[in-house]
Amino acid sequence: MNNLRTVSDTKRNFYNQHTRPINTIYRRVVEELMVEMHLLSVNADFRYDPIYALGVVTAFERFMQGYQPERDKEPIFEALCQSIEDNPQRYRQDADRLRQLLQNVSTQQLFDWIEGKASLPGAEDLQAQMQAIAQNSKFKYSRLFAIGVFTLLELADAELVKDEKQRVEALKQVATALHVPEDKLNKDLELYRSNLDKIEQALITMADILSADRRKRQQRLQEKEAGVATSNGDSGSASGSSQDKTPSGS
After folding, report:
1. I want to staple 188 with a disulfide (CB 3.0 to 4.6 A). Which of 84, 86, 143, 168 is the partner?
2. b/e sequence 191-211, b meaning 16+ C-beta within 10 Å
3. Are 150 and 56 in contact (CB under 8 A)?
4. End-to-end CA distance of the chain
């Protein structure tokens, strides 16, 4: 009997956990991320690792920026992880740990750490996991892992990832060290960066629409108030004219 969890099972789990409606613009983002995480979680070769966790957390935060109401974002993230029967705190803790670790690390130090040439204080277990990835011939590469790699580079040097030549060279070095496909890494990250640009443009457009709508409402309110004031003024004039025409005593 096959008890492998299906996409439908995962979606059902998610919507049982998060019962509030999801903002229409972001529903596709949430469901695509959910399906991607599901397909990895049921793959026999997939193994959770901190770089993947950083990719999941970063993708969620970047693609969900501007979500309203803000208070729903964390419950949505928690439901995503719980829908594949995983612990959201593990993702958050591993992502935060990598972010803190790389706060004062240069790009060269990052490369040396990934390649196993040098260690970072308190990160021996993470480095061991890096080496396990490099030595695993069946390592299950994913787009979310690629986003985690990109985020590592971004944390070490935000300017480097903006320069195409430097970015491609850096990704080549990481791909070689971890034995992951360089071509897929580059293609996935080009798509990721392109989608981020689309999200930013959509947010700008949405903000412009909301701003224009507010201006129209304010204008209608002002016109309405002006109309009421004019109407009251006309009533006062009419009353005064009536009194002026009252005949004097006979």
Report:
1. 143
2. ebeeeeeebeeeeeeeeeeee
3. no
4. 111
The full length of the chain comes to: 250
Q: pLDDT tens digits, residue range 151-199?
A: 999 999 999 999 999 999 999 999 999 999 999 999 999 999 988 887 7
Q: Which residues contact 113 (CB under 8 A, 6 or more apart)?
A: 105, 119, 120, 123, 127, 130
Dihedral sign for Cα 25, 28, 31, 32, please.
Answer: negative
| H or E element that contains 246 | none
Give CA separation, 173 vs 38, 99, 160, 162, 178, in Å: 29, 20, 14, 17, 9
Q: Which residues contact 73 (CB under 8 A, 6 or more apart)?
A: 64, 67
Distance of CA 176 to the CA centre of its chain: 28
* C-alpha–C-alpha distance, residues 31 and 80, integer Å: 9
Instruction: Tell me how far apart the alpha carbons of residues 77 and 18 are, in angstroms, rounded to a whole number.
Output: 9
**Residue 58 CB burial class (10 angstroms; 0-12, 13-18, ≥19):** buried
Residue 37 and residue 41: Cα distance in Å, rounded? 6
Phi, psi of 105 (to 5 degrees): -115, 135
pTM value?
Answer: 0.82
